[in-house]
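A.,

Following up on our hallway conversation. Structure tokens first:
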């Protein structure tokens, strides 16, 4: 079968690889669509980050690895003992790999497992392949009226909803989303679902500014044209209740910190390619709080239900669909050279 394999920086190759053979407790899926995630782009430009240099403890595999963790498809084979799905089921996959035995896992915090990994980043297969195989517990059925394209966006939507649920945002609060790429746009929608009274987006791309408004931002600020921090303080009368940092760059981080109110909260959603400096007095003198969030846990069924109810509008985020053979030039390189695209889906 064909799969997109990460070999190094700017080196993702579509290759022939063996199809996985079914094992007990596992589910084999024919992939319909798989989204290119910002994390995939980080690996393409600056990896390895999540891609293991040495064999990962949960997959026993290191680079090169098959990419792709935002995907949907059809169950084509099930292993012994699998009861939650049958052949022919339409599904999406929660791609977290967790050991189940470390202290975080025992506390139910499997998304911050001491050996955390992701299907499609840490070995063991991935969604940028014709067929992939995962543990049965990672598989979630989707409604009949949900398209495979929509189902491929359940994973990034889960990231956004988890970020908002882990924040201190309450109905009626104000919030700012720094960076309105795919996850930022979904955080805007999640904040709307949570009942935020004022949602402000901060974004430099004109196309993404437009999308932010369409996704529910009440105000969108271009920090290259005005002082975003000053504007936010004026709009919120002293700073926002919660600021979500989704840029992954230092200016975005500093802006998020300075835009939070006294006793406000900054939530870091983005994955960082390198370290950044954080001014401690910005927290001490204003008693602000900072919280990091990673991926999601125990949330896929809720996301699927909310999407089925139309509470998340994901179709407008899908700006391009390509075959696997075009994943480098038409996918990764396209995302590098332009901010016009939001979510590119790949069909193996």
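Then the amino acids I'd put at each of the 348 positions:
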């Amino acid at each position: 079968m064909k799969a997109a394999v990460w070999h190094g920086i700017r080196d993702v190759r579509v290759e022939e690889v063996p199809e996985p053979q079914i094992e007990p407790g596992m589910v084999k899926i024919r992939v319909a669509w798989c989204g290119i995630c910002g994390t995939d782009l980080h690996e393409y430009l600056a990896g390895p980050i999540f891609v293991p240099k040495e064999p990962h403890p949960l997959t026993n595999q290191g680079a090169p690895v098959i990419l792709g963790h935002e995907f949907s498809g059809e169950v084509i084979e099930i292993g012994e003992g699998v009861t939650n799905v049958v052949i022919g089921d339409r599904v999406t996959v929660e791609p977290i790999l967790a050991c189940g035995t470390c202290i975080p896992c025992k506390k139910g915090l499997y998304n911050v497992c001491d050996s955390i990994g992701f299907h499609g980043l840490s070995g063991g297969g991935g969604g940028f392949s014709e067929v992939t195989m995962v543990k049965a517990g990672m598989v979630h059925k989707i409604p009949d009226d949900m398209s495979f394209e929509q189902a491929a966006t359940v994973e990034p939507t889960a990231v956004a909803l988890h970020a908002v649920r882990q924040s201190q945002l309450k109905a009626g609060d104000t919030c700012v989303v720094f960076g309105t790429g795919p996850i930022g746009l979904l955080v805007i929608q999640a904040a709307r679902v949570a009942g935020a009274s004022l949602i402000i987006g901060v974004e430099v791309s004109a196309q993404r500014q437009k999308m932010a408004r369409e996704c529910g931002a009440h105000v969108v600020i271009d920090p290259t044209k005005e002082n975003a921090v000053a504007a936010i303080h004026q709009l919120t009368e002293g700073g926002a209740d919660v600021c979500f940092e989704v840029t992954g760059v230092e200016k975005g981080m500093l802006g998020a910190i300075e835009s939070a109110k006294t006793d406000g909260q900054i939530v870091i959603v983005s994955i960082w390619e390198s370290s950044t400096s954080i001014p401690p007095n910005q927290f001490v003198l204003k008693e602000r709080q900072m919280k990091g969030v990673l991926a999601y846990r125990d949330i896929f069924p809720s996301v699927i239900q909310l999407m089925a109810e139309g509470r998340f509008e994901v179709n407008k985020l899908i700006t391009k669909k390509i075959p696997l053979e075009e994943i480098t030039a038409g996918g990764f390189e396209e995302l590098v050279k332009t901010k016009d695209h939001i979510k590119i889906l790949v069909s193996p």
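The mean pLDDT is 97. Curious whether your intuition agrees with the design.

B.
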